[in-house]
Amino acid sequence: MRKVFADTLYWIAILKPGDPYELLAKEARQAIGPCIIVTTDEVLSEFATAFSKGGRVLRKKAVETVRKILDNQNVKVVEQSRDSFLRALDRFANRSDKEYSLTDCSSMNVMDAEQIEDVLTNDRHFRQEGYNVLIPSATSGTA
Predict the structure, then answer these.
(1) CATH numbers and ranges of domains, the chain
(2) pTM here?
């Protein structure tokens, strides 16, 4: 079955009320059809952190969403290890001309290891590395 990576932007867009990427993220996911969604502990950490100042209700929803993701048989969450952290740190160091986050580097490493080309995000950093970004810009309507 096809594998697609889900970045933090995707998870935030489907949870946060009024997010500018909400409709685009849902449309992109629907267009993919049946697949295995792959994400990482680091992405889920970023996702939860994005709601840390959102108040009790959003914070609770974020926790519930992470738990649902972890329990979903159609989602593979790749665990962070010391080795994966160090490999992400190496990629981060080797891309000093880019503005990639450490989480982006970890995600890209997982995408390479899982042979995934498609990513549910609009993050230009993935496009810079040659991945197929599936969520178009919320402002222009194109990727």
Answers:
(1) 3-133 (3.40.50.1010)
(2) 0.92
